[in-house]
Specification:
With 141 residues, the protein is mainly alpha-helical. Helix content is 51%, strand content 0%. It is built from seven helices and no strands. Helix 2 (43-52) crosses helix 7 (127-139).
Length: 141
């Protein structure tokens, strides 16, 4: 590939990244209201859930800087939307589809996902914290 062709391809890629920023899909830095939280077995369990779960499984998401840049913003929004439909600690007044399986999923190491833990160091729970969170989630069913 010649240098001229490389510059054209690079320029087109940059132009495409700029254009997709105009696609109106995303959180717009808002969260739905919290209608009801579960009765937590103790404050420590809630703190663990905040660290490891709340960004996706609550209406109290903290949106990181990269969640404003398409196409990453689309992936983040999609993940949060899907997670909230399965288990949402902010809408405990409606049935939670994933509540009965939450403890097992946490113990199996499936939650929080590796890609989330990679970018959010505080979500890397110790074995003792994982066990404590899972026991607390089991008590909340």
């Amino acid at each position: 590939m010649t240098r001229r062709n490389l510059l054209v391809v690079l320029g087109a890629g940059v132009a495409l990244l700029l254009v997709i920023q105009l696609v109106p899909y995303g959180h717009q830095h808002t969260n739905p209201p919290v209608t009801a939280e579960p009765v937590w077995p103790d404050p420590a369990v809630r703190d663990l859930a905040v660290r490891a779960c709340f960004d996706c499984h609550s209406n109290e998401s903290v949106w990181p800087w990269y969640s404003n840049i398409a196409p990453v913003s689309w992936l983040v929004q999609s993940d949060v939307d899907r997670a909230r439909t399965i288990l949402n600690f902010s809408t405990w007044d409606v049935p939670q589809v994933g509540a009965s399986e939450a403890a097992e999923i946490v113990l199996a190491g499936e939650m929080p996902p590796a890609k989330y833990r990679l970018l959010h160091r505080s979500a890397n729970l110790t074995a003792a914290e994982t066990s404590q969170l899972a026991q607390g989630l089991s008590a909340m069913r």
